[in-house]
Amino acid sequence: MSEGMPPKSAQSRQVDFRGGGFAPKSRRWVGLAAFIVLIGLAEIGTRSGFITPLTLPKPSDVGATFVELYQSGLLWKHLFPSLSRLAVGATLGASAGIGVGILIGLFSYIRAGLVPLVAAIFPIPKIALLPLFVIWFGIDEGSKYALIAFGTFTPTVVATYGAVDNVDRTLIRMGQSFGLSWMSIVRKIVLPGAMPGILSGLRISIAIAIILLVAAEMLGAQYGIGAYILEAGSLYDLERLFVGVVILSILGVTVSAVISRIERRILNWRT
């Protein structure tokens, strides 16, 4: 061994980075492949007779029915009212829920007064309140907005004040030690730290809003995805019924993708 050269065991070598922090990797094709396999198995099962037509229609027939619905223009007549009801109701409920949840998380007196109330109304099935909302707001759009907003409000409140409670108190104490004002601590530490939990709660709240949208449209609505599903079910038209289910699934996936994009944009500091 020549002079000045370190032993072979002491020579530097490249080590793989181990600090990824369990960061999830994008595997979008896996989800698409799972859908394709599931639809393919359903098509094979219905064509072979293993699955009876009274149980599940052929996916190809469902696709043809969807194309007919689109070409007739009825798709937009049913979809636009549903989207407007979902947007108005979910926006009202989520905005109020985030605001109330933050107040509960920050102020002890508000927490003491509102947490028991939220705990009392949270387990109530919101669909059971639909007749009451019809009495209060009428059978038109008001009752639908109110039901969706109320159903979105309570889970958003719970998720929001839970996210505020889970903010690392060490960071808050550090801000206090540096002399930050109360408002600066809330704006720069509490809200950014609570944002992941708030957005996760919104996923659940919007899913509940879609469920309540369908229930509300099954009562006193001429157009809407819920009204379309109710009409198809009363006629036992499985192809149209599954078209409505597919539209709701696409709506849920779209909303989830929008929230994921918002998360990547707002929470880019976590990477």
Note down, in words, how this protein is organized:
With 271 residues, the protein is mostly helical. It has a single domain (67-270), classed as Orthogonal Bundle (MetI-like fold). It is built from ten helices and no strands. The protein has helices spanning 28-48, 59-72, 74-106, 108-121, 130-137, 141-165, 169-177, 182-217, 225-234, 238-266. Helix 7 packs antiparallel against helix 8. It is globular, with a radius of gyration of 26 Å.
Question: Which key terms come to mind for this protein?
Answer:
single chain; MetI-like fold; 271 residues; 0% strand
How do the helices and strands line up, and which of them pair or pack?
Blueprint: H1 28-48, H2 59-72, H3 74-106, H4 108-121, H5 130-137, H6 141-165, H7 169-177, H8 182-217, H9 225-234, H10 238-266
Helix pairs in contact: 2-10, 3-4, 3-6, 3-8, 3-9, 5-6, 6-8, 7-8, 8-9, 8-10, 9-10
Short description:
This protein is mainly alpha-helical. Helix content is 73%, strand content 0%. It has one domain: MetI-like fold (Orthogonal Bundle).
Write down the secondary-structure element order.
HHHHHHHHHH
The N- and C-terminal alpha carbons lie at a distance of 45 Å
What is the number of helices?
A: 10
Give me the CATH superfamily.
Answer: MetI-like
Strand content: under 5%
Task: Domain count, please report it.
Answer: 1
Radius of gyration: 26 Å
Determine the CATH topology.
MetI-like fold
- Provide the CATH architecture: Orthogonal Bundle
